[in-house]
Every structure is written in C-alpha cells, then in structure tokens.
C-alpha cells in the first residue's frame, strides 16, 4: 500500500468515530426535542451534516485509492448511515491497515533475505 492510500484510509478512519457520535447525539437531541423544551437539533444537525459530508468525501477518496470492490465500498458507505456504524467502520479500517503493515513487513523481510537458489520448504 502506498503512502497516499494509507493516508486516505487513515482520514476515513479518523472521521468515522466522530461522525458516528454526532449521529447518535442527533438522535438523542431529536428525542429530547419532542419530549422536552430542549432543542439542540439545529446545532447538532449542522455538526452531523458537516461530519457526514467529510465522511463521504474521505470515503470516495479511499475507495478511489484503495481500489475496493463495490461490496466493500458499499459496506463502508452503509456504516455512515447506520447509527453507530462509524464505530464498526473504524474497526474494519484499523484491521485493514494492520494487515497491510504486516504484509509490507513480510515483503520487506523477503527482499532482505539472501537468495541461495534453493527452494524453501
């Protein structure tokens, strides 16, 4: 994985949890608006809207750079519209980044090993 792809995945991962929190807070504010005199929906709606737009922009960038299949891209988008889905997206993206680091280290280890011409068993 190149640096730009890793950066795109990191940006998506970093915005996924705040977007999920803002969505959950917006839901709470919506309930409070209907049950009490408290009305923070306009503020939380704007905050969540901005975070959602950032999530979609970062999602498009990550999809373009990581060359995800349509199913994986759809999964990450679905995580943005489900309450708490951003937490799941964060976990998946963290796992994907760790696996790519492990694979890169394995490739680097293979490149450093001297070739003897014999096949390893």
Helix and strand topology:
Blueprint: H1 3-35, H2 41-66, H3 70-81, H4 85-112
Describe the structure.
The protein contains four helices and no strands. With 121 residues, the protein is mainly alpha-helical. It is elongated. It starts with a helix and ends in a 9-residue tail after the last helix.
Please summarize what this structure is.
It contains four helices and no strands.
Query: Total number of helical segments?
Result: 4
From the alpha carbons, calculate the radius of gyration and give it in angstroms. Answer: 20 Å
Query: How many β strands by DSSP?
Result: 0
- Which percent range fits the helix content? over 70%
As a percent range, the share of strand residues is under 5%
Task: Please tell me what the overall shape is.
Answer: elongated
Can you tell me the residue ranges where pLDDT is under 50 for at least 5 consecutive residues?
Answer: none
Category by helix and strand content: mainly alpha
What does the largest sheet look like? Answer: none
Order of helices and strands: HHHH
Task: Indicate the mean pLDDT.
Answer: 88
* Alpha-carbon distance between the two ends: 28 Å
Task: List the defining traits of the structure above.
elongated, mainly alpha, 121 residues
